[in-house]
Design brief:
Elements lengths: L1 E4 L1 H8 L6 H8 L4 E4 L1 H29 L3 E3 L16 H9 L4 E3 L3 H4 L11 E2 L1 H11 L2
Helix pairs in contact: 1-2, 1-3, 2-6
Length: about 140
């Protein structure tokens, strides 16, 4: 399964006591493939540093970038599908560029992409993705 994980969802699943910790653990155990772009990695870095500081951020980015199940994708076309927050287009553009299966986000503007007829984009909440992983990898 190929997924794009928005920044806030990634932050929400890293903590040891997070109810969504299984999402991060599944990544560490190669149970899904993470698709990222340079723009997504830069946002991860910016937001992670706010939460955990530079050392932890560099460790997390190192884990992401060296994992067998991470794939970096260049964005050659910007679809401008997200209304109201142009910055979030990096997630939908990466989803399309990477031929991902799921975009994981709790952002209402990204969830609204489910209503598009073309291009089809499957956006699920972090809670739903966590539940799906729990059922898949019992």
């Amino acid at each position: 399964m190929k997924i794009v994980l928005d920044t806030n969802s990634f932050i929400s699943c890293i903590g040891k006591r997070s109810p969504y910790r299984n999402v991060f653990d599944a990544f560490l155990n190669n149970q899904y493939d993470l698709r990222v772009s340079t723009e997504i990695l830069l946002e991860y870095e910016e937001k992670f540093e706010r939460f955990w500081g530079e050392e932890v951020t560099q460790n997390l980015l190192g884990v992401i970038l060296t994992s067998e199940n991470t794939s970096l994708h260049d964005i050659f076309y910007n679809f401008h599908l997200v209304q109201g927050d142009l910055d979030d287009n990096k997630f939908s553009d990466t989803y399309l560029s990477a031929s991902a299966d799921i975009l994981v986000s709790n952002d209402k503007k990204l969830l609204a992409l489910n209503k598009l007829e073309f291009p089809p984009i499957s956006v699920v909440t972090l809670e739903d993705f966590s539940k799906e992983l729990a059922l898949t990898f019992l």
